[in-house]
Amino acid sequence: MAPSFDNVDTLTINTIRLLAVDAVSKANSGHPGAPMGLAPVAHVLFNKFMTFNPKNPKFMNRDRFVLSNGHGCMLLYALLHLYGYDLSLDDLKNFRQLGSKTPGHPEAADTPGVEVTTGPLGQGICNAVGLAMGQAHYAASFNKPGYDLFTNYTYCIMGDGCVMEGVASEACSTAGHLQLGNLIVFYDDNHISIDGDTAQALTEDVIAKYEAYGWHTQWVKDGDHDLAGLAEAIEIAKTVKDKPSLIKVTTTIGFGSLLQGTHGVHGNALKADDVVHVKKLFGFNPEEFFAVAPEVYELCGKAASAGAAAEEEWNQLYAKYTAEFPELGAELQLRIENKLPEGWEKKLPVYTTSDPAIASRKLSETVLNAICDTVPALIGGSADLTGSNYTRWKTAVDYQPPSTGFGTYAGRYIRYGVREHGMGAIMNGLAAYGGMIPFGGTFLNFVSYAAGAVRLSALSEVRVIWVATHDSIGLGEDGPTHQPIETLAHFRATPNLMVWRPADGNETSAAYYMALTEKHTPSIMALSRQNLPQLEGSTIEKACKGGYVLKEVEGADLTLVSTGSEVYLSLEAVKILEGKGYKCRLVSMPDWHTFDKQPTEYQLSVFPDGHPIMSVEVMTTLGWSKYSHEQFGINRFGASGPYQKVYEKFGFTGEGIAEKGEAVISAYKGYSPRSPLHKAFTLLE
Asked: How many structural domains does the chain have?
């Protein structure tokens, strides 16, 4: 039966508007226009259609909601408060204040009920695609006749800015191909962006574009008043099972304001006289702030109670399910609890020096083949580089709509196409759905294409893994356009991000161990194209510290510290220097982030006082002064040619590194330098 609407619905819509107005005015910062225009859409959706339980925001079969135009976050905060999430009126009053639960853009780690971190436009709609993919996967994997455990929808609101961002096009094209009928997106067609009328920059037919992507489309022309039309559009969208749905909703930004319909109400608090005007227009007391009538709480509370009842019904169904399907039930319970199967780490490959030299991209493939069947939470793919990234394990089934004949939604190998940025943002959504560990492959240099999504992975504290192959000038003939130089420095500078560059098989296994066990930290694995020998002294346990002494010697004249493909070259240099009478230590440093978390005593045992330390890496030297006195790297773009010749050109051979090392020893003769790890700020901590 179609929902009905009365005066309390209107009051609730206007309450949402004025909570946004008051919060932005109190903060004198924020965006009131979008919440004022979108309040009818949000009310119809939350009150009449969505299933959720504010007392358990992580209820597994809840409908997901993403506000992709995150600057309008007071819309979401007002809704979360009204429906009984752990967000009080005082929290709304502290909007955009330091330490509040209502930051300036939605942050999943800060606010109960916020599914994903949205801020940079376009990211949220991509996260929504990932969330919808997650539901389709769970439904295909676990639902049984009479046991529809996973039936939830993903709803998303996006604005013109999201439509214009290229990353959204990547993900929405993917969603159309995947026929995600569980994804319903509202496009806020208000014709305004920060610069003014969108006609200055956006004249495409958005509906036609989405139809070309394979979406079902509708248009609600009066989003300010037509509540019945909005409800009907949602009902129709829910009947479309083989296409994602776009509902274009034409709204008036800042509805009710003296500046409604202009960019003046986009990113600025309403002036005092305008606040008075709006409150009078909607029948509120201009002298009262953050006003919520009891009947509004009552209306929203009924929907919240219905959601709690739905969860209880789901819990009972789940209990019966686990009794009838104990193996699937046990696996699902691990997923819900975000746990790994007991003993999975025993599957990680272990290597000795008798094993052959193997490229770390192939070592990565060996790990995936070893653990993917044991860890069904792993779901991944490649941005059209499967044969180069080696991301597809032997038993993998493609994640595809069954109608394509290429796979099923229960499959776990995703064909992302040439869409690195979309892949990264979709992975964030998959991780946010719960119980999945997404990984995606591309060349390391092209992870830079997806830097926006990588940053949000770290900020959101979600566990995603980048299998980033062809990690250096070692990829050779493709030349400077494909050879990363600055990439690792960029990502190593990103908080809460592991950047692994393993030197051999044991270090590759360690990288995967850490990537899977660090539940709130994403990982980038920089993997070689060229073969790397198995190193004496390397172990999974040592590498899991992020950095360790690979070759120790008393009374050292020099410590070399290196990563990845340069570690064995540095070992050759150590032997050359030993032949000249020098004593040299060698440190392998596969991940700075993990090393920096080790106790100071351990760090200083790796990088002690008393002799110079020289870093060796075929990347920019930026950042290495944190650990070394002198740095040998490349501070220019690479070159095209067979990789051995390129390495020789830049001096990265045993002889070339030894020559640099000898120069450092000579320069520091007679000095006893302190370790670079001694920092004044560290001593103050």
From this structure: 3
